[in-house]
């Protein structure tokens, strides 16, 4: 499935980058991807080829429960599984929560120790629930009692909030800053667990608030996933203070891609995300991003690299995942 139709460049490669030509990295060693969505082995194999090409070894995935055993059998030692609810065909709201409770136990039996709460404004509206809702609080308590650690997606890109945007307060949505109050209540309530905030905790566009949150909650960590969003957030801000932020909080940031395995994506698509992340964190690249982004302010988005120091990259790529997700979450050292 290579899109060469009518000379239009594909969404994943607007600028003609050769993604097969993996740039040389300033640091050696394996890279752990803390945030992916894989599924059936046949489709996941294509994604793994791309991960192999870019030196990604261990991968944390939010695969459906039904695919866990098959993925483990097909790719031994490659994946760790993050507990998620069943999103499709769940019937009523009551059924959704009842099935979620069952899955918490089932994922736990299969070795999962991290549970994901997707409470971005869109999902809050879809399920009529927030992190504060009694049904969700029951799920959190159940997971806590089993020994789970927590992962959360509570924020979305800042551009999606506002009177002209997707999330209007007139439609009952919270404002961008208000969205995080429920997260802080959860961090307050369960300080003895690791809390992984997806997509830089949803707050790369507000690093002062993110820094305060990281300072106040020592078990709160974040992942660098969501390629287009991260590219935009970096390009739109002054580079020096942002780079200083990554250096200051280098022990709390884990590498993640947010790659989603789906039949509509091909090998080149998977490669494109790892290529862009590499440019973003490792280099001082300054030019157009090859990935199409409908949320970019005008036309093709810019990609500005932060060129993080090697010791920061090593922590982000591997050491933080080994320490936080391996030792603390899984309770055992990870290779
Ligand atoms: Zn994700």
Question: Explain this structure to me?
Answer:
The protein is of the alpha/beta class. The chain has one domain: TIM Barrel (Alpha-Beta Barrel), CATH 3.20.20. Helix content is about 40%, strand content about 15%. It contains 12 helices and 11 strands. The strands form 2 sheets. It has a 9-stranded parallel sheet, with helices on both faces. Helix 1 packs parallel to helix 11 and helix 3 runs parallel beside helix 5.
Quick overview of this protein structure:
With 335 residues, this protein is α/β, with parallel strands linked by helices. The chain is 41% helix and 13% strand. The chain is globular and about 50 Å long.
Oligomer: single chain
Please state the second-level CATH architecture: Alpha-Beta Barrel
How many strand elements? 11
For this structure, what is the CATH class? Alpha Beta
- Number of discrete helical segments: 12
Structural class: alpha/beta
The rounded distance between the terminal residues' Cα atoms is: 34 Å
Quick one: overall form? globular
Order of helices and strands: EHEHEHEHHEHEHHEHHEEHEEH
Mean pLDDT over the residues: 94
Listed once per kind, the bound small molecules are:
zinc ion
Largest sheet: 9 strands, parallel
By CATH's scheme, which homologous superfamily applies?
Metal-dependent hydrolases
The CATH topology, please? Answer: TIM Barrel
**Helical content, roughly?**
40-55%
């Amino acid at each position: 499935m290579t899109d060469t139709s009518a000379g239009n460049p594909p969404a994943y490669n607007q600028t003609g980058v050769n993604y097969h030509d993996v740039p040389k990295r300033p640091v050696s060693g394996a890279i752990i991807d803390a945030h992916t969505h894989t599924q059936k082995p046949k489709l996941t194999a294509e994604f793994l080829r791309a991960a192999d090409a870019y030196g990604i070894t261990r991968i944390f995935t939010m695969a459906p429960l039904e695919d866990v055993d098959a993925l483990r059998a097909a790719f031994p030692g490659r994946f760790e599984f993050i507990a998620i609810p069943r999103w499709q065909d769940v019937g009523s709201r009551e059924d959704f929560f009842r099935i979620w409770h069952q899955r918490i136990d089932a994922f736990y039996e299969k070795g999962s120790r991290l549970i994901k709460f997707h409470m971005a404004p869109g999902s809050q509206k879809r399920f009529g629930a927030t992190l504060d809702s009694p049904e969700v609080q029951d799920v959190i308590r159940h997971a806590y009692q089993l020994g789970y650690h927590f992962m959360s997606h509570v924020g979305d890109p800042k551009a999606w909030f506002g009177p002209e945007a997707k999330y209007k307060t007139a439609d009952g949505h919270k404002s961008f800053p208000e969205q995080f109050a429920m997260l802080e209540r959860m961090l307050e309530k369960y300080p003895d667990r690791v809390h992984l905030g997806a997509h830089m905790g949803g707050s790369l566009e507000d690093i002062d608030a993110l820094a305060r949150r990281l300072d106040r909650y020592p078990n709160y960590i974040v992942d660098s996933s969501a390629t287009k969003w991260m590219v935009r957030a970096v390009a739109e801000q002054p580079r020096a203070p942002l780079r200083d932020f990554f250096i200051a909080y280098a022990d709390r940031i884990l590498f993640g891609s947010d790659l989603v395995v789906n039949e509509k994506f091909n090998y080149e698509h998977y490669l494109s995300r790892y290529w862009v992340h590499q440019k973003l964190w490792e280099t001082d690249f300054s030019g157009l991003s090859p990935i199409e982004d409908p949320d970019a302010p005008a036309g093709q988005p810019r990609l500005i690299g932060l060129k993080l120091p090697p010791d920061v990259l090593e922590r982000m790529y591997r050491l933080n995942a080994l320490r936080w997700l391996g030792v603390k979450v899984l309770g055992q050292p990870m290779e």
